[in-house]
């Protein structure tokens, strides 16, 4: 089989790493990919942008691609699944209408409310004055979400009314997110512990993946601005068997059945960002229509089943026949980020020390914002790479990941030193 993977970050590197292990696969094309992905077995990089839907379609038809796996949300929200299926191609990812669960925060919140799926109280605003009046009536902190794709920058936790008003002004009046925030969702701030709950869906059946926990804030102890994610580990002990069942019964299947009722059956990865309250009640923070990043990196390190086989079963509506297995070991990934991230940062800074980590059998470096410059792997993004290690416990995986990431040097870069501490406290 020939496989096409769309995307070029750490998530797509982890997907390519796992797809390459499938006995069903002869060749893998990744567009646009990165230097780390290019080093994986069976992989060839293709220089097409993730939003060049016509170019990707033409390539897939020419090469007679057996299966396309979409990494990032943008092409899904643009309708790549519909386009490929209309041309007789098998593709793993939700339709354009189903992808609204991530593409539109207002659609997502209205959907949750309609089907009585637990989430924070909210209101949606198109008028800036009405939004500010609402802010003035609320107790802080509150959460402000841009309605639309904002490259991980569309969610702000405002601790003061002044900060909330300024955020709304920047989004709605100044267009700081390229139009994504012309409409905003303002919701109550939930307290508890976050977890990532990822399931594969075939339209009617759901197959849960291993649980994980992301770390969104830039700095230790969950301080600093929100980011795309500074590290993750799997499994997440906060998701007990009882909570796991609650999520499936009260969130996942009501979502799947609601999408069927609306005429938009959901096929692909459904990522449920959860807040687990102190009373053990899971509530939805957000939906994503694809694998998380950096959660995918530790999850793929633990996955023992054939990812390609699972994707094919999902495309065919046969996940009820599937089994999924993960190693009992834990995995933990630490993100190395460019200085200044998630705001402005320099690019094209050489990365030194990657060769040292290649020798570690229980560690994998998943590259994200990297590029070849004069024969050297250099930085090309805010999140540079994710060093991911296995261990018999989260503590062992954490120790190994930090041991390896300290072998890497890159001017101005930084990483959090507390990834996994919550799980270790539970252990």
Please supply descriptive tags for the structure shown above.
427 residues, alpha+beta, Rossmann fold, Dna Ligase, domain 1, D-amino Acid Aminotransferase, Chain A, domain 1, 4 domains, five-stranded antiparallel β-sheet, globular
Describe it.
The chain is of the alpha+beta class and 427 residues long. It folds into 4 domains: 2-95, Rossmann fold (3-Layer(aba) Sandwich), CATH 3.40.50; 121-188, ATP-grasp fold, A domain (Dna Ligase, domain 1), CATH 3.30.1490; 193-321, 2-Layer Sandwich (D-amino Acid Aminotransferase, Chain A, domain 1), CATH 3.30.470.20; 330-425, Phosphoribosylglycinamide synthetase, C-terminal domain (Glycinamide Ribonucleotide Synthetase, Chain A, domain 4, Alpha-Beta Complex), CATH 3.90.600.10. It contains 15 helices and 22 strands. It has helices at 10-19, 35-38, 53-63, 73-78, 80-86, 100-103, 105-114, 128-136, 161-173, 241-261, 296-302, 307-315, 354-357, 394-405, 421-426; strands at residues 2-7, 27-32, 43-45, 67-70, 91-92, 122-125, 142-146, 155-158, 184-188, 193-202, 206-208, 213-214, 217-219, 223-226, 231-234, 267-276, 282-288, 330-337, 363-367, 370-373, 376-379, 383-391. Helix 1 (10-19) runs parallel beside helix 11 (296-302) and helix 8 (128-136) packs antiparallel against helix 9 (161-173). The mean pLDDT is 95.
């Amino acid at each position: 089989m020939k496989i096409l993977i769309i995307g070029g970050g750490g998530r797509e590197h982890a997907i390519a790493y796992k797809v390459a292990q499938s006995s069903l696969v002869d060749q893998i094309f990744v567009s646009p990919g990165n230097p780390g992905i290019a080093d994986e077995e069976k992989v060839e990089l293709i220089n097409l942008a993730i939003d060049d839907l016509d170019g990707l379609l033409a390539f897939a038809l020419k090469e007679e691609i057996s299966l396309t796996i979409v990494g990032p949300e943008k092409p899904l929200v643009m309708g790549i699944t519909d386009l490929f299926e209309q041309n007789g191609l098998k593709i793993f990812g939700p339709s354009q209408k189903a992808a609204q669960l991530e593409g539109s925060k207002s659609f997502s919140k209205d959907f949750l409310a309609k089907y009585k799926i637990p989430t924070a109280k909210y209101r949606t605003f198109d008028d800036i004055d009405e939004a500010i009046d609402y802010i003035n009536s609320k107790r802080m902190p509150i959460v402000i979400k841009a309605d639309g794709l904002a490259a991980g920058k569309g969610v702000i936790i405002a601790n003061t009314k002044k900060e909330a008003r300024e955020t709304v002004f920047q989004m709605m009046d100044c267009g700081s997110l390229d139009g994504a925030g012309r409409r905003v969702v303002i919701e109550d701030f939930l307290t508890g512990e976050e977890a990532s709950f990822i399931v594969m869906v075939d339209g009617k059946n759901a197959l849960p993946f291993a649980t994980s926990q992301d770390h969104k804030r830039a700095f230790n102890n969950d301080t600093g601005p929100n980011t795309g994610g500074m590290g993750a580990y799997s499994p997440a002990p906060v998701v007990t068997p009882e909570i796991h069942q609650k999520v499936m019964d009260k969130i996942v299947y009501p979502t799947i059945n609601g999408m069927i009722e609306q005429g938009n059956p959901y096929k692909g990865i459904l990522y449920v960002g959860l807040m687990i309250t102190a009373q053990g009640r899971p509530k939805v923070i957000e939906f994503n229509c694809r694998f998380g990043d950096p959660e995918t990196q530790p999850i793929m390190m633990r996955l023992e089943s054939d990812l390609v086989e699972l994707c094919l079963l999902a495309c065919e509506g046969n996940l009820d026949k599937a089994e999924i297995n993960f190693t009992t070991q834990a995995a933990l990934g630490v993100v190395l980020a460019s200085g200044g991230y998630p705001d402005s940062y320099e690019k094209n800074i050489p990365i030194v020390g990657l060769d040292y980590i290649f020798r570690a059998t229980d560690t994998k470096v998943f590259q994200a914002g990297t590029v070849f410059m004069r024969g050297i792997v250099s930085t090309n993004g805010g999140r540079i790479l994710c060093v991911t290690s296995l261990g018999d416990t989260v503590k062992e995986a954490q120790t190994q990941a930090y041991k390896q990431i300290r072998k890497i040097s890159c001017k101005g870069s930084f990483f959090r030193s507390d990834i996994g501490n919550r799980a270790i406290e539970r252990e």
